[in-house]
Design brief:
- The chain is an alpha/beta fold and 347 residues long.
- The chain is built from 14 helices and ten strands.
- α7 packs parallel to α9 and α12 packs parallel to α14.
- The radius of gyration is 22 Å and the shape is globular.
- It starts with a helix and ends with a helix.
- Bound molecules: ligand G3I.
- Ligand G3I binds next to loops.
Length: 347
């Protein structure tokens, strides 16, 4: 071997050592790693305005990264039935078509929520029988329109107050808690194959609200109506994220009722501009959530609430907070991305 070829050989060997794990990691992606670890999917929320951002779409369309997508807004009541009996599916269809094109599962979100509810419903002054009819009609029309396309439906979203107890929304005020089983029954009748979820936040650890969510599952079951899962939204704050033990035990409470759990809207916000230490802690916090899900067979998948800080809801809602997602504003991965991948990879 000449001196030159010896030098070349050792250079190549060195670059192989450096490139090996990096290229393997880039090729794997979050969804590929999640599925290898036994989950059904790793997914992301998205929204119609972002679909014109080609750099964003290149990453979203990669099913090695995301095996599932959720429409962040476009299947909600105000978009789908803005006035009584007038249905508009165009925006929701765009997200459903995207999922089809990318061979990604679709979590449809959501059918009944007090927010993004048009005033013709919330302030209509309807009596019990009429509101039940409006609720059933909305659910039947929307679920039938998407029949066969929704892997999951978030049937009822955030029925509980922050500290527990039913939210005093128009459905509860007019119909009482029965609006929840009525909603699940209508969804089950319209698409028997979709998995039907109750979805909420602050139910990821033992608390009054968590126990009330457990009771919602029991309520639906007591009516003999199908409920398949509970969505833990998992909107957390860096350094205040639930512990792995607490989350595992919260998941187990639902598993004990025979329903599955999905992490449906994961993000972990911090004050901005984010410091190096905060982003390092954020990576640890993401790993905690992933590890809790992996430790419980009832936990079947994880969805982040969009994948990049560029399109996060957080700064618009929590002034001074942001940087909540694994990709930054420039669509570059952060420490959180490596943390999630490493947690999935060590499963
Ligand atoms: O559609 C109007 C548009 O016509 C108007 O010009 C614009 C002006 O601000 O507002 C648009 O509506 C916004 C809507 O998103 C669609 O972009 C609302 O102001 C804005 O409040 C709304 O925020 C959404 C939020 O739900 C509403 O509560 C977020 O994008 C969405 O990510 C967020 O998602 C929720 C989940 O559904 C349930 N769990 C919590 C999660 C985060 O809040």
């Amino acid at each position: 071997m000449t001196l030159l070829s010896a030098a070349l050989t050792s250079l190549l060997a060195a670059s192989a050592v450096q490139a090996g794990p990096i290229s393997r990691r880039a090729a794997a992606g979050l969804n590929a790693a999640a599925q290898a670890a036994g989950l059904e999917f790793f997914g992301s929320a998205t929204d119609n305005p972002e679909l014109t951002d080609s750099s964003y779409m290149t990453i979203l369309n990669n099913s090695d990264q995301f095996g599932q997508i959720t429409p962040g807004n476009s299947m909600k009541w105000d978009t789908i039935e803005p006035s009584r009996g007038t249905f508009s599916f165009t925006k929701g269809d765009a997200i459903a078509d995207l999922a089809d094109q990318n061979n990604q599962k679709l979590r449809c979100h959501n059918l009944v929520w007090y927010n993004q509810l048009p005033s013709w419903v919330s302030s209509g002054g309807f009596d019990n029988a009429t509101l039940v009819e409006i609720l059933q009609n909305h659910i039947t029309k929307e679920v039938t329109h998407y029949k066969g396309r929704c892997y999951h439906w978030d049937v009822v979203n955030e029925a509980l107050e922050d500290g527990g107890g039913y939210r005093d929304n128009v459905f509860y005020k007019t119909i009482g808690e029965a609006y929840i089983p009525i909603a699940f029954a209508a969804a089950a009748a319209a698409d028997p194959d979709a998995k039907l979820y109750y979805n909420d936040y602050s139910i990821e650890w033992s608390s009054t609200k968590h126990q009330d969510a457990v009771n919602i599952v029991k309520l639906v079951q007591s009516y003999g109506v199908k409920i398949d899962g509970v969505g833990m939204q998992a909107h957390f704050t860096v350094g205040q994220t639930v512990t792995q033990d607490a989350m595992e035990s919260a998941i187990q409470d639902f598993a004990d009722l025979g329903v599955e759990v999905a992490i449906t809207e994961l993000d972990i916000r911090t004050t901005t501009p984010a410091t190096y230490d905060a982003l390092t802690q954020q990576s640890t916090d993401y790993q905690t959530v992933v590890n809790a899900c992996l430790a419980k067979s009832a936990c079947i998948g994880i969805t982040i609430w969009d994948y990049t800080d560029k399109y996060s809801w957080v700064p618009k809602t929590f002034s001074g907070y942001g940087a909540a997602l694994p990709w930054d504003d420039n669509l570059q991965t952060k420490a959180a991305y490596d943390g999630i991948l490493s947690a999935l990879g060590s499963a």
